[in-house]
Amino acid sequence: MASRARLLFVGTGIWPRRLAKLVNTHASELASAKSASLSIANLCVIPILVSQSDIVVRVGFRPGMRRPRARIVDALWKLMSRFDRQTTWVYYWIGSDVLYQLRDHKASRLTKYFESAIHQIHIAGAPWLADELDSIGVRAESVLFPLELPDTGCVERSVDARHILTYIPDSRPSFYGGDKILRLAREFPDTTFDVVGGTGTWIDSPPSNICFHGWVNELAPLLARNPIVIRIVEHDALGGTIREALAAACHAIYTMEVPYTVHVAFDDYQKLQAAVADLVASDRERTLKPNREGADYARKNWDAARLTVDMTTALVRFC
To answer: Domain spanning 5-146+303-317: which CATH class is it, in words?
Structure first.
């Protein structure tokens, strides 16, 4: 292997590109990185990029799915790994891919390729994801997914009441608690709900206090107003919205148990409503100060540079 490892992150969505950028920014002494989409149109390019790489990391694209594109990707992956023994092949599980794999495994909907993939190298973006994978025979090392944190400072409450900020993509509103946010908006008509990640195509007549921002590349401008952040999701790794929220000293309500957030189970609407009511009431009384303890915790535990170096070190160790 070269003095610096050559990494290739492949998958769908934004994550391969972001991971490559993080490695090139924070871990360039250990490795250089490229990224590529696993789209059908791009598959002819993948073998060329693989030939130029020491480690290929498949991000969030789970093995054994029955969809035609997934079968093609699995076949290509199997062929390349069989004939290229010099390259290290890694699966990086990052969130809902684990949930869907568990469901398909239970329903016996996975192809035989998954049986061979079990014996390859796997890492998971959070400790509980590794535990879930273990239940279906996948041994994965926990390697926390790195993410850049916003630099907004610990701002005080503005003249206006705090908004509530949440993430709901149009493709999966139920998964991200869309029905619950809609209900909250109607129960708290004087509170503005900022929704990022989608334009609200899943709602016919949204309340006037919901503002859809669509896809937002940078949350910092919204977080700078120190909103209350809600992430009520059916399944998660360690949500980027929550990490960014705490780093910006926001108070947050979250499905997972994370320090300095209010924990609410996905199906417990009564507790969710009560948690929102408490925070909104404190804000109106001007007693809700920025969550500085949460900000300190986020900066200490989720520093992007350190997590990127940790991830890169783990990947290089597999060579």
So the answer is: alpha beta
124, containing H or E segment:
strand 121-124
Q: Is 164-300 in the same CATH topology as 5-146+303-317? A: yes
Sign, CA dihedral 57-60-61-63, equals positive
> Running DSSP on this structure, what letter comes out for residue 155?
P
Cα Rg of the chain, angstroms: 21
- Residue 116, token pair as written in the block: 């061979």
pLDDT value at 2 more than 90: no
Predicted TM-score of the model (pTM): 0.91
> How many other β-carbons are positioned within 10 Å of the β-carbon of residue 301?
15
Q: What is the pLDDT of residues 192-244, one digit of tens each?
A: 999 999 999 999 999 999 999 999 988 888 998 889 999 999 999 999 999 99
| Contacts with 34 (C-beta within 8 Å, 6 or more apart), sequence order | 6, 7, 8, 9, 20, 49, 52, 53
CATH 3.40.50.2000 fits 164-300, yes or no: yes
Give the percent of the chain with pLDDT over 90. Answer: 87
Q: Spell out the domain ranges in the chain.
A: 5-146+303-317, 164-300
Q: Where are the alpha helices (DSSP H) in the chain?
A: 15-26, 46-51, 68-83, 96-106, 113-117, 127-134, 178-187, 220-223, 240-247, 269-284, 292-301, 304-317
pLDDT of residue 84: 83
pLDDT tens digits for 85-95? 889 999 999 99
Please tell me the predicted confidence (pLDDT) of residue 272: 98
| DSSP sequence for 260-279 | TSEE--TT-HHHHHHHHHHH
Kindly give, in sequence order, each residue whose CB lies less than 8 Å from that of residue 171, ignoring residues fewer than 6 positions away: 198
CA distance readout (Å), 194 to 167, 172, 216, 223, 302: 8, 17, 11, 11, 25
CA gap 160, 45 in Å, rounded: 52
The Cβ of residue 122 has, within 10 Å, a number of other Cβ atoms equal to: 20
